């Protein structure tokens, strides 16, 4: 099998080696799995454990809102981290950013496992928790943008969506690992779980960080970045160049990225609502999270392959609109404690339909920006949009009404955010046939730049 490359494409801007795209995809997959194992064990703990350990027990609803707020507070530092790490990645290379984010996430997660509780240290306990969570946010700010840029710039031109989808497949794997780590913990007697068992998943992060670092250490820099560097085309101030030349794309990605509300509502808010309000057993809901992400592992590359054939926009828009349609019946099923319907709708919502938008965005967003400002553009715009997703569980807890239908305002909130994301991508350019050197440029891609596999 051979790949025909557009002869008008400058040398060095397309993948230079047969094995590098696969190696870049593997490094992105493992790195994202490590990063988001750490990130999501916090989300699970924020839903099930932290309200009881790090906040006053006098008002359970206030404790739940405060715990969800600490989950969301990481998204405050994400834009700041995106500016700094985006600058480093666009000026000095993608690899440096990916190494730093991995080590910082591992350190901050291990730190959480060592923290004293509210009963041991009073108000100092949630303060230290917030500091650790802020460090996690800085790390996450550069991880997905760096991994997506790295994989995109190594990928064959006609399979960019497929290869970049491994970044999100890794994220799903991280969520699976995080949930699996909490399954035995959640099965422990309550007293033991709250005393010491909850710390185990956080300590285990050291192992997964070591694995991720070992895989990433030998990954070469991307051909596209090296070409920019050799020609001295890299931006001296990527952030300024970004907002001077591509601010409409920044806005598009910000609004599109709020589709992440679906993920945090599904993984954090509905877990808390089902277990703490409706009294569905913890293992039942945790098992649903695992199964949904197992399905997503298969669905994400399939959606990406479709996007390489028909385009990025229709696949993303289908995912966003489909989530808006499914969130209402899913929350209704939880409120009625209908386990069969919860599983059917939950697997369809998170495992299948959300995967259409979730698996495509690394390529869709990255292809909106030029190589010299790609990491900054992706990191800054996604992290601003993701901030809404990060605070979505806290917003949902505040919106939740009384009684069996108290979930309705939450469903409406999710539907509105999905609609905004879909409309944003309707206004975007289609890039699946655009050569690497033309991405982010105002000139439309030539028809000759369509690479195919013979």
UniProtKB/TrEMBL annotation:
<feature type="transmembrane region" description="Helical">
    <location>
        <begin position="406"/>
        <end position="428"/>
    </location>
</feature>
<feature type="transmembrane region" description="Helical">
    <location>
        <begin position="162"/>
        <end position="183"/>
    </location>
</feature>
<feature type="transmembrane region" description="Helical">
    <location>
        <begin position="124"/>
        <end position="141"/>
    </location>
</feature>
<feature type="transmembrane region" description="Helical">
    <location>
        <begin position="97"/>
        <end position="118"/>
    </location>
</feature>
<feature type="transmembrane region" description="Helical">
    <location>
        <begin position="378"/>
        <end position="400"/>
    </location>
</feature>
<keyword id="KW-0812">Transmembrane</keyword>
<dbReference type="InterPro" id="IPR005828">
    <property type="entry name" value="MFS_sugar_transport-like"/>
</dbReference>
<feature type="transmembrane region" description="Helical">
    <location>
        <begin position="284"/>
        <end position="303"/>
    </location>
</feature>
<dbReference type="InterPro" id="IPR020846">
    <property type="entry name" value="MFS_dom"/>
</dbReference>
<dbReference type="Pfam" id="PF00083">
    <property type="entry name" value="Sugar_tr"/>
</dbReference>
<feature type="transmembrane region" description="Helical">
    <location>
        <begin position="195"/>
        <end position="215"/>
    </location>
</feature>
<protein>
    <submittedName>
        <fullName>MFS transporter</fullName>
    </submittedName>
</protein>
<keyword id="KW-0813">Transport</keyword>
<feature type="transmembrane region" description="Helical">
    <location>
        <begin position="250"/>
        <end position="272"/>
    </location>
</feature>
<dbReference type="InterPro" id="IPR036259">
    <property type="entry name" value="MFS_trans_sf"/>
</dbReference>
<keyword id="KW-0472">Membrane</keyword>
<feature type="transmembrane region" description="Helical">
    <location>
        <begin position="341"/>
        <end position="366"/>
    </location>
</feature>
<feature type="transmembrane region" description="Helical">
    <location>
        <begin position="63"/>
        <end position="85"/>
    </location>
</feature>
<keyword id="KW-1133">Transmembrane helix</keyword>
<keyword id="KW-1003">Cell membrane</keyword>
<feature type="domain" description="Major facilitator superfamily (MFS) profile">
    <location>
        <begin position="24"/>
        <end position="433"/>
    </location>
</feature>
<feature type="transmembrane region" description="Helical">
    <location>
        <begin position="315"/>
        <end position="335"/>
    </location>
</feature>
């Amino acid at each position: 099998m051979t790949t025909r490359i557009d002869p008008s494409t400058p040398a060095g801007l397309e993948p230079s080696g047969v094995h590098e795209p696969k190696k870049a995809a593997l490094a992105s997959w493992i790195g994202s799995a490590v990063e988001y194992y750490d990130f999501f064990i916090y989300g699970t703990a924020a839903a099930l454990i932290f309200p009881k350990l790090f906040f006053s027990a006098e008002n359970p609803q206030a404790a739940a809102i405060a715990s969800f707020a600490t989950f969301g507070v990481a998204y405050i530092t994400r834009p700041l981290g995106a500016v700094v790490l985006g600058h480093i990645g666009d000026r000095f290379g993608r690899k440096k950013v990916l190494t730093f984010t991995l080590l910082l996430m591992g350190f901050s997660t291990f730190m959480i496992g060592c923290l004293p509780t509210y009963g041991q240290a009073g108000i100092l306990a949630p303060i230290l928790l917030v500091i650790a969570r802020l460090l996690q946010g800085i790390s996450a700010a550069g991880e997905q943008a760096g991994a997506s840029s790295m994989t995109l710039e190594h990928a064959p031109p006609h399979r960019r969506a497929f290869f970049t989808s491994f970044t999100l497949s890794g994220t799903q794997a991280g969520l699976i690992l995080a949930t699996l780590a909490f399954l035995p913990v959640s099965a422990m007697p309550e007293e033991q779980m709250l005393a010491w068992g909850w710390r185990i998943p956080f300590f285990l992060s050291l192992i997964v960080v070591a694995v991720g670092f070992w895989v990433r250490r030998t990954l070469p820099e991307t051909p596209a970045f090296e070409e920019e560097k050799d020609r001295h085309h890299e931006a001296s101030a990527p952030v300024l160049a970004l907002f001077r030349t591509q601010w409409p794309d920044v806005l598009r990605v910000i609004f599109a990225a709020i589709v992440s509300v679906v993920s945090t509502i599904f993984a954090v808010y509905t877990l808390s609502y089902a277990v703490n309000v409706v009294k569905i057993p913890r293992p039942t809901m945790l098992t649903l999270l695992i199964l949904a992400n197992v399905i997503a592992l298969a669905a994400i590359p399939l959606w990406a392959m479709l996007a390489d054939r028909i385009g990025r926009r229709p696949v993303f828009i289908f995912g966003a609109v489909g989530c808006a349609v499914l969130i209402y019946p899913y929350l209704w099923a939880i409120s009625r404690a209908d386990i069969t319907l919860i599983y059917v709708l939950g697997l369809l919502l998170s495992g299948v339909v959300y995967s259409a938008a979730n698996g495509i965005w690394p390529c869709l967003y990255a292809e909106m920006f030029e190589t010299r400002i790609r990491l900054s553009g992706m990191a800054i715009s996604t992290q601003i949009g993701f901030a809404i997703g990060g605070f979505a569980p806290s917003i949902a807890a505040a919106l939740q009404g009384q009684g069996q239908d108290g979930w309705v305002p939450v469903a409406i909130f999710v539907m509105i955010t999905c609609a905004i994301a879909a409309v944003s991508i309707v206004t975007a350019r289609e890039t699946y046939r655009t050569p690497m050197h033309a991405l982010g440029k105002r000139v439309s891609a030539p028809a000759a730049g369509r690479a195919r596999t013979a």
